[in-house]
Amino acid sequence: MACIGYLCINPMRMATIYYTLSRKIDKVTGQSQVLVRFVVGSRINQRGKAPIFVQPQFWNAKKQLATIPQYRLMNDEQKRLIEYLNGVNETLSKLKNIISSAYNSESSDKQTLPPDWLTSVITSCFFPAQEEKPAPVTLSQAFDYYLETHALSEIRQRNIQVVSRSLARYKKFKGATLELDSITAEVMKDFENYQREEASIVAKRPDLLKVCPESRSIDERGENTIIGRMRIVRAVLNWAYKEDLTKNIEFTKYKMQSCIYGTPYYISIDERNKIYRMNLSRHPELAIQRDIFVFQCLIGCRVSDLINLTKDNLIGGAIEYIPTKTKDEVGEIVPTVRVPLNSIAKEIVERYKSDERASLLPFISPQRYNDSIKRIFLAARLTRTVTVLDPLTRKETKKPLNEIASSHIARRTFIGNLYKKVKDPNLIGSMSGHSEGSRAFSRYRNIDEEIKKELVKELE
After folding, report:
1. Please, are residues 172 and 212 in contact by the beta-carbon 8 Å criterion?
2. Which domains does the chain have, with CATH numbers?
3. Beta strands in 291-383 (DSSP E)
4. Which residues contact 110 (CB under 8 A, 6 or more apart)?
């Protein structure tokens, strides 16, 4: 008997495994979890969740597998995506075999199964029984345990791991154990200062890098970066206290600073159109990135969302996507962002339409994209001076626009020009992926020099 997608136990009794994708989409990764359903006739019908996650646009409901996109020229991120999706399909195939074997090995007459049978099979497959680990005693152990026990986005995991490695070097530098019961506000402040000085410290003490090496050199850090790292330390300590891993609350006396951001700089609609109309016929590759930059200016998404856009995100003359970057600690439902396309955006999409490519546009790596944007601004002679906040000194400094242009200026261009027309943060946020009530929009209230000049004229 040939059975595709089924487990044929015998001609009289057929067990079927269905894979579907949850409708819930992770607010950070944009992925949905694979759901498993196990059915045997009319007697057994069980459901479970597999710890496998796929972005909806890469899921084939009919085949119950991940769809592998086809790229003509693949960048590193696309290669990693294909490798991941192939791994997903391999895991789904193995899981199906494991469930089949578990059912066949049941000693009962298979008329009934325990209510949690499927869940226990899936759990044993992905999380084999291990000896119970002792509760963490040190802050480093708490970091490890926190990572093991929390479902975190890939970005959040990396950020925590970076702090954990720095913490290990700090312990070596201080010759301390950093037990949870001994973490005080003074220790927190000292670790904060270490973050500020680590670049110069490891230059004098290269042995510290042998404890926890970094793939990149350790450079001087800005205050906002340090504040973000200390927030991670505090989050782990708060969790440890709530989990009764320590009774110590001395760390709560540490005063957390606030991040400081400069006024957003962006380009006008006229400047954006100047870039779009610029003749780059002698530089066709740069012309492609110019068009992608203008397209980003017209939909306002982050570059992490931009490079993940496929043809499936184009729905009814608009781009629809789930923003992948939100704060992990905010437990809110992130709605789908929908941005209608204007005539220029539609023109760009039509220009790069291709059946050979799954992505919406011919994207390259974010770094090469940023390098291209700087070249584009220089070619368009957009070199006016703008005021920016130095991340190290937290003081204002002047920079030529072309030297600091990047993909994020496209996002700010979308937001800033809309905000000049309609000062409704929630309306604009629904198209930019900001959460309702986001304080980011308060920075756009000081940017319209033209409006200020018109107001001053009223005093004449």
Report:
1. no
2. 6-126 (no CATH), 139-253 (no CATH), 269-457 (1.10.443.10)
3. 314-315, 318-321, 337-340
4. 9, 13, 40, 103
Terminal Cα-to-Cα distance of the chain (whole angstroms): 91
Rounded CA gap, 443 and 445, in Å? 6
Q: Are 330 and 435 in contact (CB under 8 A)?
A: yes
Dihedral angle computed from the Cα positions of residues 238, 244, 245 and 246, in that order, rounded to the nearest 10 degrees: 70
- Whole-model pTM above 0.90? no
Of 329, 345, 327, residue with least CA distance to 431 = 345
In tens, the pLDDT along 363-422 reads 998 889 999 999 999 999 999 999 888 877 778 889 999 999 999 999 989 888 887 777
Task: Tell me the C-alpha to C-alpha distance, in Å, between residue 242 and each of 68, 141, 237, 246, 247.
Answer: 43, 16, 9, 8, 9
If DSSP codes are grouped into helix, strand and coil, which group holds residue 41?
coil
Phi and psi at residue 218, to the nearest 5°: -85, 115
| Cβ contact 141:66 at 8 Å | no
Cα 229 to Cα 143: distance, rounded to the nearest angstrom: 13
